[in-house]
Amino acid sequence: MDRTLENFITVLRRSGVRVSVSETMDAVRAVALSGYEDRQLLKDFLAVSLAKSQPEKQIFENCFDNFFSIEGLAGRNALSENQIVTPAEHLSAPLTQMLLSGSGGGLALAFREAALGAGIKDIQYPQQRGIYMQKLLQILGLAGLNEDIQKAAQGSSESAALATSLESMRDDLTRMARDLIDRQLDLYASKRSEEMLERQLNDTNLSTLEERDLIRIQVIVQKMVKRLKDRYSRRPKVARRGQLDLKKTIRKNIAYGGIPFDPAWKSKKIDRPEVVVLCDVSRSVSNVVRFLLLILYSLNEVISKIRSFAFCTNLVEVSSHFEKYAVHEAISKILSGDGLPIVLRKTDYGRSFTDFREQHSDCLSKRTTVVILGDARSNFGEPRTETLRFISERCKRLIWLNPEAPLRWGSGDSEMKKYIPFCALARECSTLYHLELVVGSLLRAHKQ
Q: What are the Cα distances from residue 361, in Å, to 47, 276, 307, 314, 316?
């Protein structure tokens, strides 16, 4: 396989296009037929061989246009005609002589060789721009050019004018090198940069997020939901090889005189969970609530039933909002209290738990998992631990998600340590990574 096609396939893979070995061989045969002369024909052949889905076709279009675009140095002089002067014998650096002679083709070739020597196709992150820039210019011979400029500047007026011309050429050269690095960064590292940013946001405290991060966070949540759906919504296999069900095997093979021609294997039933969510919607917890509800209501394929409750000073059911409005709109209305009989003053966990017991305890059963999301800070009100005990005993298990670090549990007006004994699981939950772990644990528990 030729180096150009190999590098292009590397670009596609790094940009998120899955290219198998067989597809690579198809591309090799396609290029052997089309060649590189007719750019549109080459693009059509490679698109058929390498791009499968619509998103991959869009990525292919962008990568092809960037990768096979005519480089700024090729096919023309790198310097304008008024910069080209007669070569000076006392300035001996190869790069200096190349610039003064106006050899655009030679400079383009030198650029390509320097880029290959610097390994700029290995660039992965924007922070590496400076390193690869230095490597490229060093191989190109910038040190020799700088020495010649210093020599010329110390000479006669004509030499000083030559030094000024060389400085201008050096600036152009640096700009071309920077453009080349940026193009390579777009080709080889754009996907890596996005992945690095996503990892950072995945571990960022949700309460500290800025408005500009919310759109990107929602994209990350969509990917997270897809992973969870793929993992937990698969239908159970009819058979699980290795565990023979003797009774079923005998019954199935009565027609064969008891000879086990058609063995039956033990299967595993997947029990989709029923979830009751109690969310503290006070300002300190609102961002975590937003994304927990977004994740849960996006997992309708793997969660049998969700009932949602919001509380601050009192508690109200908000499940109907998700039936009337789209998920994002419903969450916004819940957090603002729009159209709800909720009192958004001082948080009162004791009163909210009592409201739930008196008005909604009928939704609890041994199939129900109760998830409470809140910091347990009740403004020194009565914690009503006996009410939480009642809820815990009536459900399958009680999970408490606290956006504060465990070191702060029990400090000040936090009642967290009084509530922990009644929880099957109490965990810090302040980032998307925490949310994914908890929701995965919730779904996994019902797949046993």
A: 59, 11, 12, 15, 13
Statement: residue 44 has pLDDT above 80: yes
Contact yes or no for 246/227 (Cβ under 8 A) = no
Q: Residue 249: what are its φ and ψ, rounded to 5°?
A: -65, -45
**CA 1 to each of CA 28, 188, 442: distance values in angstroms, whole numbers, following the listed order:** 6, 19, 48
Instruction: Tell me the angle at which helices 54-67 and 157-188 cross, rounded to the nearest 10 degrees.
Output: 160
- What's the rounded mean pLDDT across residues 125-146? 85
Provide the 8-state DSSP code for 400.
Answer: E
The pairing of beta strand 368-373 with beta strand 315-317: unpaired
- Average pLDDT value for residue range 259-287: 81
Backbone angles phi, psi at 413, to 5 degrees: -95, 15
Among the residue ranges 217-226, 274-283, 313-322, 415-424, the one predicted with the least confidence is: 217-226
Residues of the chain by 3-state class (helix, strand, coil), percent to 5: 60, 10, 30
Give the pLDDT of residue 237. 45
Give pLDDT, residue 276: 94
pTM (predicted TM-score): 0.60
| Cα pseudo-dihedral 48, 50, 54, 56, rounded to 10 | -160
The pLDDT of residue 189: 62
* Residue 14: Cβ within 10 Å count: 18
Instruction: List, in sequence order, every residue forming a beta bridge with 265; answer none if it has no partner.
Output: 244
Q: Give yes or no for a contact between 328 and 217, defined as CB atoms under 8 angstroms apart.
A: no
Q: CA-CA-CA-CA torsion for 327, 328, 329, 332, nearest 10 degrees?
A: 120
